[in-house]
Structure formats: C-alpha cells, structure tokens
Amino acid sequence: MAASYGLGLKRPSAIPGFGLALGFTLTYLSLIVLIPLGALVLKSATLGLSGFWDVVTGPRTLAALRLSFFTSLFAATVNALFGTIIAWSLVRYRFPGRRLLDAFVDLPFALPTAVAGIALTALYAPNGWIGQWLAPLGIKVAYTPTGIAVALIFIGLPFVVRTVQPVLEEFDRELEEASATLGANRRQTVFRVMLPTLMPAILTGFALALARAVGEYGSVIFIAGNMPFISEIAPLLIIIRLEEFSYPQAAAIGTAMLMISFGLLFFVHLVQAWQRRRFGHD
Amino acid sequence: MRRFRSTLAALAAVGFTTVAASAVLADTTLLNVSYDPTRELYKAVNEAFAKDWQAKGGDKVTIEQSHGGSGKQARAVIDGLQADVVTLALQGDIDQIAKSGKIKADWQKRLGNNSSPYTSTIVFLVRKGNPKAIKDWDDLTKEGVEVITPNPKTSGGARWNYLAAWAFADQKYGHDEEKDKDFIKKLYANVPVLDTGARGSTTTFAQRDIGDVLLAWENEAFLALDELGADKFDIVVPSLSIKAEPPVAVVDEVVDAKGTRKVAEAYLNFLYTPEAQKLIAHHYYRPSDPKAADPKDLARFVDVKLISIDDPLFGGWAKAQPKHFADGGIFDQIYQPKSTN
Q1: Which CATH number fits domain B2-119+246-298: 3.40.190.10, 3.20.20.60, 3.40.190.150, 3.30.70.1450?
Q2: Within a 10 A sphere around the Cβ of A1, how many other Cβ atoms?
Q3: pLDDT tens track for B90-137
C-alpha cells in the first residue's frame, strides 16, 4: 500500500485534479471524522493523564471493555467464516430463490438496530420461539453474553458477505483450471489458490464487522441483560456515565475504545499488507 | 435498488411536507419534553389544554410531546433541544438543566406543591395469584425470587424503586445504614436483567415472562393491567413506599427566545386546574388536588405510607443523588465484584 501511494505522488499528473481532490479529501475527513474525534479526545483530556488512566483501568470499565471487544472479535470471526460460505454459495451456485437470498443479506443493514434487538430478544427469551427449546437444555441466550454475541453476529453479517462477494465474482476461473491441470486436488485448489486471493477481502469484511460490533448499542441493550461485570457492554457504560453527567469520564471510555479499535484495525491492515507481499498480489 | 431509493426519497418528501404543513396550520407550537410513562397522560392533557386555551381567546396551540428516559431528556434539553416545558421524573434532572442556566434556579418555587402537579409511587406487579406470595419489600430479597427493575443509572423511575426499598430497610433495621446496604445488595442480587428504562422492564416482565415481580410506577402497573390483561397480573402494594414527585418547569431560555412564555406558563398552570387534575387521576397519577378527581378513579389508589425524598432519611435530591447514584456511590458499591470489595 505504501509503495503504490509513493508511486502516485511521483506522477501526480497521470490523473488530473490531484491537488483539488486531496484538498477536498482532507477537508471532508476533518469535518466528518477528525474534528468529532478530536473533540472526544480533548474532552477526556480534561481528566489529566492519571485521571484518564483511573477511569479506564477501573474494574468495571475493564470488565465492560473486555466484554465488548471479546464478543465483537468472536462475532466477527464467526461472520468471517459463515459470511464467506454464504458469499460462496451466492456466487458459485445457481438455485431458485438465489436473488431473494441475496437481498436478505442486506436486511441487518436496513433494520433499525433497536428493532433487531427486540426481535432477537423475543426469539431467544426463555419463552420465545427459539429460547423455549434451548431453555430445557440449560442454554440461556437472551440476557447473557451469548445473547450479545448473537446480536453482534446478526448486525455484522452483511459486511463480510458484501466484501467477499465481488472478489469471488471476479475470481479468474482459469486459475482454478490451471491448478487442477497441474495436479492439485480440490482441497489444495481451495486452500492454496483461492483462499489467499480471497483473504484480503475476508479480512476487510472481518475488520468492518468488528468495528461495527464494537460500537453497537441499539440492538445489544435489549438482549444483553446489562448486568455490571457480566453483560454490561462498554457503550452502555458510556451512556451510564452520561446519565451521571460525567462527560469527561464518558469521553475517556470512548477514547479508550477508539484506541483499542484503532490498534485492532491497524493490526488487520498489517496482516493484509503482509499477505499481499507474501502472495504477490500487490 | 434504484426503485427502493426513489421510494425512500418519496417517503422523505412526504415526511417533510407533513411537517411543513403542520407548522403552517398551527399558530403556536409548544414542545413538552417528558419522561417515559407519561405518554398517555399528556396526550389527554394536551387536547384539553388546546381547547381551553382557545376558548379563553388564545391562538390555536399544538403541543408536541417527546418521551424518553428522564436523564436522557434532561441532557437533550441542556444540549439544545428546544423544549418550552420539561415534565420530568426527577427534581435532580431539572436541577441539572437549571445548572446550565436554561432554567432559573428558583424554578421549584414557581408552582404549587414543589412544582409537582401530581405524584406517584412505586408498587409491585406480580404474576396472577401471586405464586411466590410477595407481600412486602423483604419478600424481594428471598432466595429464588426474581425481581425486575431497570438500572437506576439510566432510569429515573428505577431510582425511586431503589429509594423505596432503602426507605423500607431503614425502617425495618432501625436506621442502620450498613444493614440498609446489605438489604439493597441482596435485593439487587435477585435482579436478573437491568433494562435501561421503565418500559423496557415492563416488556421484560410482561412479554418475556422473566421474573416474579416487577417494581413499577403505580400508573405503569395499572396500564399493564389495562393493556396486557388483568387476568395475568396482580398489583401488590407494599407496606411502605416512596412519594415520587415528578416536577414540571418552563424552560426560561427557550420560551423567552421563542416568545412562548405566556402560553407555556398557562400550560403548566393548567395542570393544576380541576379539569387536568381529573385527567391526572384518571391516568393513574395521584392528583395534588384529590377533590377535583372522580371518586371512582381515586378509589383505585391504595392508602400506603409514603416517604418523601425530603425526609431526613434522604435529605432531598441534592444529597440523595450523589450518595446513592453517582459514580462510586452506593449503587455502584453493591455491584463491585467480590475480589475488590
């Protein structure tokens, strides 16, 4: 990525309007992203470094952050796996109702998250359609961290499917044929030829689903149970701090989430870059 | 996809025209920012006030309502929501708005009964026939009883629930704060779900079948019987409860900027008139002027010993709020994990 950017700077005249486009990009990004985030960081800075550290490392904050990030990572992983399989089915097979299914994938995008949360809670509560079959087995979903994971998987699914799908559609069939004629079996073709090509897209989908899940509030609060230290997600803790009119504390938790998310996303990008170099897709 | 977008655009256009049209039709519009369970009450009051105001020679007035958690609503007003009047669950929430300068500090003295035209209290809603035999607050701490109440941090109503339990414990254990704390801790150990608002808890209890008892606003409990079936639930009134005084105030900064002070003040004064008091009692709030209410409506309220927030036990919101509900307050202490406590 760095290399291609450098290349672009050397020959800015290849495509006209470089200065204008860059200027626009910087202004727009500042207005939409950097200024609000800057305000957030500034607000939390009013606590001072040690105050910030006390808020962020308080046992309750740590428990909430841990819950938010681990369930989000889990949900994004599940989505990466099953989202890829769904994208595969939609692209590679022709069956009646395929277009309809394809449209279903976007529903979690379209549905207001509160509606999703209430619907999932109604389904998974001990008296719900699904919950009543799980309850006798001793499996509780609604009002536990499991319920949070279910909600996060629901809202994150389209990200993986929609990033993997176009790459699969463009995938050069001749590569598979070449792999087969060179004596690779099917498993080798999938894992050695196809998966490395798909991996950047899957990782992008994973990163998007993760980012979405970490910040999710609307659907989760209905299904979570919201018990401190058990099922209280970090965004809820931020709301609680706001209700106490402790704006700097709320901003501090927000800043901590931002830094962790940035670290995770940066790591995903590093993996992608490493992967590109290794498989020579740059 | 394109068709979907154009449908959306069309819907948005319809939305804008409706808003624009209603703005043209109404001469005066007031925004009443309120808390969750007052939706039905203010719908009735607004209609009555609009008629009354016009009959007295005023302009045509439309009152818009906004409902949500009391604290969230207060924050919205502080952050610039153009509310002409606020009718919230807690005095503390209006105090916070006053701190921002949008409401004058003496707001609570401007209207009768500490600016609370109605009061309410906290009662129990239990499953039909009361299978767990829940009669009073100490039944809630028994093993195997599941209590549904929202999070006091995010719900004004839930703070009243908590304080009512505290008041009971204080009487029972002879004003020993350590024992009060233990009682509250045991009670909240029986809470399996902390919803963020009162309506959320009602849903959890009534629709999801979770829990044995719901701590609810008296009017919410009656509404639940009306709407979800009197054959499913019973109301249990404990031996002692809290006198919840939801206050109302005119937002000075907004009404002065909009020029709506006269009508906004008339609106709040209207709440104290016999006509409104009758509506208030009909919607299960305890009227400040019971003489005006329909005796049939009044008969529904059980006589119960009510402790006010101004009782020496609590010493008013300004003291109770930080002690119990601030970051690190007693409510936070009962949720510390065993290792750090």
Answers
A1: 3.40.190.10
A2: 10
A3: 898 999 999 999 999 999 999 989 999 999 999 999 999 999 999 999
